[in-house]
Recover the amino acids of this structure.
């Protein structure tokens, strides 16, 4: 699988070293191939946001905040609330990130987070419509990468979903044709699913879950799979150059499904939804 | 006050509303060498989707600090004409166009032998003049052909097509209506001779087994496009052979 | 006329060579001084646009599309429809064009196309007003240069005019003070004139019509003249550095008028308006 | 409900509403050397149109890759102050300002002997502080003077003025009202000693013969401006002579 | 106070030279430490603006224009007119200024001018509200630096205040719930205060007022102080790198107050308000 | 129709509405070394204001033409997260953020010994994740700590705090409500050991004597922050000493 000369020399050495390890089921940081780094998830850390969460996944630190406002629906979805996802790879987080407007990596991250939330039907968007075609809830999700040691997809989805799941939004009511905010009551967002994503790196036909940034620089390619629940995927994004062999696809799906269940369990614990019926 | 009647996208005898079978793609037209100024170019039509692709390079990378000592850099711009869609797309690159430029570039980086041209750049421009579903995969198919037309060494041609899930059924090459109303849309691109996936995205819900069915259906469609690419190229370079194939 | 040292050396050689040819009435590609390259014009190629046209003029390929929408008139023209022209020199078309927002050349092209259409009074803009001061038709004309071998002005005007002349726009009606689209009927734009432009290159006092990109790099200067009809100009744009001798202006006007009649005849044929009274 | 009464822009005895004759320009004031920091500068007033121009250079071109091995590059920015027009112009360059910067630069490139300064750059800045018709030609007139004031070798000064067609008559130096309500506006700039046109645009309809009449009228006005330029310059460099003129 | 090596060599020499002079109470251009350069102020120079002024302070030339329009108030100030200040360091004015959108220096200048006007309560903004929460006057102040020889703050404030103080704005009236302009009457802005700013350069613990651009390149740091009137400051901005010793702050305030009185007197003369009761 | 009742911000016994004394700052938390990738970092909380700062460098300055032959250049970006404020701040740098980046950078340039690293660059990033008054001074305090954490030689740490005038009284570390409704807000930062002010701004009205009172109160608060900075640093480098201090 390895193509000579494709990577600059030091990367080639790292690639070979990682490959040698992985065929023995090992990784540089001592993890097994399918093992996530330690995960910490804290919610409600930004009092001025409707919802917020910070996730530490190994050395990757991500914060997500949710704000809501009244707005007009998009013309093609007059009876649905709007979701707007913005992600920024802060220059604080890595010497590889530059200040400035979101680049293609940040835009891809935002759009993958958006897809996991939107396509999983996580939110009951039709319940957040106040006057169809005219007034709906606009849900802003802002994701910032604060410290970056590989795999920003999975903790960004976790932080966004946790922020949404714990958000307390104003209660809006229609009075005499106007939408007014009830200042006394805050309410939860109507939630159906708890999507999570699993990022898988490939070294030839070998799988390694949750790559660090060192691993990312040396692997052949990578694929992110978003799961709505135990049985359905909602989003996929192959996201580096390189090949995925047709022959490993089934294994990728199988592993990602298994890990998604594990991540969702941790998510539910962190947001206090353990055992809660959905 | 009228009740919403759900449009039936698939008839009882397994036909789609445009008359196609579930595993049938739209009419395709692929041509190479359609633009004179570029080093390589191609044109593709899939149904009403119409796309030009052009390649410039290898040429000196600039600004200089972007040049890579061991290989060429590949730039890719997927862009839609303002009139290519319903309504009018505002000029300038949308976030969607920026994301698609990235995934298409990454797909093409997999097949181009970049190490042959250290310190240089290869530019790929994809211009969608009409968008009617499947533009990223059709654009990639045209771009891959334009690279070959430019004589740039590649491991293989690659071609792409979307598969969808519509009213519970897996369909090949979804139309715009199927894409919008269906449950899932999954663009796939492969380098067929290498048995490798170079682009893969999913928007929408699928189970594991549906996914595998969809992936295999995509593979079938890609095989057809691959033959059309080789024919289009054959008209220009009758001797073209992907590297390593004898 | 020729100024030593003005052009880099290879350009100087080309300039001299072209000048030697033109004084014998010849050009590099075998054309006469006043001869256009072969012209092809196809309309209605983009089903999603209200009108569209593709023009091949020698090795220059241009596509124009027309879209319409309802909008507010400009404050200073409350009783006229709006025209918005955008042009892009796609990087696909030439190694001299860069990706990015329209540069000064693209903006100039858009504004010259706009001037030819607007100043010729081609469209009866007052007939596309639904509620004066509040609701008028907005006509977007988007021009893309797909392949560039010199002279993007003339085929851009041709493609734009052909797209407008063959456009089928929705019928709007005012009902109870609202403007509503009649979904069943599409109608033509009200057209008065068929403007065309003629681009003329100058080598000293010698004229050469429709320069190629090779010729453009070596000529002294260039001038674009838009004609509303056989007798009236609507727009002029001198558009490269360099001098136009006062003494050749009359000949430039005479030749451009003659060529404009020839181009308009081809345009009318292509859009099926031969013999149609205006 | 009132009937629109057409404003008569030209009276029966051939006078314009501001009292000028058809071939009469507005009061002009031209000064050189008005800004200290720049290498050369000028100020022009034509009626209420008020414009500063400044020149910096020749200096090192940067970024370096823009430098030309055989000549200087010339940059030009025509810009209007936010308060210079009716209403308020938003800050930032409009498409109109970008186009005018280009045509003015091309006009000036014709007269500057760029070959004297290989690898360098000359920057020209034109700042319209009040716009009341004829700003591009007045701006060019000031910029040409600023170039001479900077001691940059030029083949000739150039000057510009607009001519218009108003109620069927060709008029010199149209006012803003004539420009808006008239049939045509034609900015012209020439290098008078060389008998050459360096800028020419037309907005509006004219026949061939009207065009030639307008062009000749412009030439007359340009002659007047040229003398004012030379006088303004004379105050600073009494020995200034365009190259080749003895 | 002077730190070795901090400035490039020629700047260090200049710094030392200026310091030697200033301890003797002298400056390069012959001024005393607390002396302003010659000041000229002309108003109403732009007929198309509601108000305008040009200020020459030595070799620094600044123009400010005021335009007004109807607009919506900001949500947090529904009963106040809006002030919008924009400043541009035109490339015309100095080889140190680049064309392009306002950079950090221009933005700082605009915000300091804004602060002097806003925080001094110069304008009675509550008197320019036509329909609270919906329709107020928007006052645009555009400042352009045309020629730059140091200290753009003080003449920018002077030009802006003079333009506001002499502005003639349309009279707006509320009729049947709509705000309409009375075309016959123009009126003045309601003015309470005449703020001025004083820029002070520091060479160690030595003060020099109104630094030239040569001085600016060599001084240790600089501080701008805006005074609402004789007794109250409204704005301060330390605006270069470098230290201000705590021990000189009182002297800075004292000198700036004294100079502000002098500047305000000149301002009042120039705008014809001498002796006018406020 | 209700009469507006003025909120009393200071009670009769000289307490503020959040219970603090006039010269009392909000609870503060300062930590160093909180982000792994950067060369130095810090975190600060002052009440609900929460800010990260990180330092990268010294490293090669690029683009190259920005490099200074005699010293390092210092870049600083003060940025607020979209969710950090009431409402939602639009992504992208506002004019306010650009100004604050400048004044914070200038403050830090005063303390960093830039001459030690000719031709290089030091980047400072300040990310406000919650803004509840005093962000520029808290951000500067964190950035100064991050510089020390990165081992970059500095003349002294610097720390900042705002002082305000509220209902005629000078208060330390105003809350957001005091900032909005009060008469003046004055951010101050000092390098305490050097007795020098590195940042000073005033928004709002103060007399000379109020100003001096406010400045002295700021100095007091800064002293407290300075000790907290040194403690935070001590946990990492117990031997840290500002240059020249023995």
């Amino acid at each position: 699988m390895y193509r000579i000369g494709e990577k600059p020399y030091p990367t080639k050495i790292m690639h070979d070293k990682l490959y040698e390890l992985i065929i023995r089921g090992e990784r540089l940081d001592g993890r097994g191939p399918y093992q996530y780094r330690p995960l910490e998830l804290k919610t409600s850390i930004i009092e001025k946001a409707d919802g917020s969460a910070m996730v530490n996944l190994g050395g990757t630190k991500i914060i997500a905040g949710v704000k809501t406002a009244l707005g007009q629906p998009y013309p093609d979805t007059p009876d649905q609330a709007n979701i707007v996802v913005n992600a920024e790879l802060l220059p604080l987080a890595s010497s590889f990130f530059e200040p400035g407007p979101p680049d293609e990596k940040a835009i891809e991250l935002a759009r993958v987070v958006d897809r996991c939330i939107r396509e999983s039907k996580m939110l009951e968007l039709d319940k957040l419509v106040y006057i169809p075609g005219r007034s709906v809830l606009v849900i802003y999700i802002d994701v910032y990468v604060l410290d970056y040691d590989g795999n920003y997809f999975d903790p960004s989805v976790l932080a966004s979903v946790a922020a949404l799941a714990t958000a307390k939004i104003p209660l809006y009511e229609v009075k005499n044709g106007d939408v007014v905010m009830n200042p006394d009551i805050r309410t939860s967002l109507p939630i159906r699913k708890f999507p999570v994503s699993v990022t898988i790196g490939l070294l030839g036909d070998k799988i390694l879950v949750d790559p660090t940034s060192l691993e990312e620089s040396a692997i052949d390619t990578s694929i992110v799979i978003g799961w709505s629940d135990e049985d359905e995927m909602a989003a996929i994004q192959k996201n580096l150059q390189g090949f995925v062999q047709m022959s490993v696809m089934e294994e990728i799906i199988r592993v990602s499904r298994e890990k998604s269940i594990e991540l969702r369990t941790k998510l539910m614990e962190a947001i206090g939804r353990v055992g809660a019926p959905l | 006050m009228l009740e919403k009647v759900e449009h039936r996208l698939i008839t009882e005898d397994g036909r789609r509303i445009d008359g196609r079978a579930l595993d049938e793609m739209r009419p395709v037209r692929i041509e190479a060498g359609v633009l004179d100024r570029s080093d390589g170019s191609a044109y593709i039509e899939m149904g009403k989707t119409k796309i030009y692709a052009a390649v410039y390079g290898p040429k000196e990378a600039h600004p200089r600090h972007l040049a890579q000592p061991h290989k060429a850099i590949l730039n890719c711009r997927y862009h839609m004409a303002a009139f290519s869609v319903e309504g009018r797309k505002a000029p300038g690159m949308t976030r969607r166009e920026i994301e698609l430029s990235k995934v298409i570039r990454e797909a093409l980086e997999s097949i181009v032998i970049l190490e042959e041209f250290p310190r240089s750049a290869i530019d790929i421009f994809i211009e969608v003049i009409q968008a009617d579903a499947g533009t990223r995969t059709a654009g990639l198919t045209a771009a891959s052909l334009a690279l070959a037309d430019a004589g740039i060494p590649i491991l293989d041609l690659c071609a792409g097509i979307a598969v969808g899930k519509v009213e519970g059924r897996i369909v090949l090459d979804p139309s715009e209506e199927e894409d919008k109303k269906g449950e899932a849309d999954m663009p796939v691109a492969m380098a067929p001779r290498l048995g490798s996936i170079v682009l893969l995205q999913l928007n929408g819900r699928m189970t594991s087994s549906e996914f595998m069915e969809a992936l295999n259906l995509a593979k079938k469609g890609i095989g057809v496009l691959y033959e059309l690419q080789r024919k289009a190229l054959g008209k220009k370079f009758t001797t073209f052979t992907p590297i390593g194939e004898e």
Summary: The longest helix of chain E spans residues 249-270.
